[in-house]
Design goal:
Layout: H1 3-26, H2 29-47, H3 54-90
Length: 91
Amino acid sequence: MTHSQTGTLFESLDILLEKERHALLAGDLGEISSILAEKETFLDRLSALKGPQTETLAPLRDKVSRNQVLLDSALQGIREVADRMNALRQA
């Protein structure tokens, strides 16, 4: 992969991570679902890169971590709602 292609890959993933963040904050589960497959493809392509990319990858890694925290929180909220609905059905 050329330097130009690598830069485009990083830029595209950065844009996708921002899109994912906005979808998570908006609670748009449909959008989050469609982003997931695209993100997996990007991450597979990144893992295939060779050579030192630490400086370039650090901001992306931070965004992935930030979004993971948001996703974990969203999933916890969904679980809590499901538990409450189950409790209401049983009452």
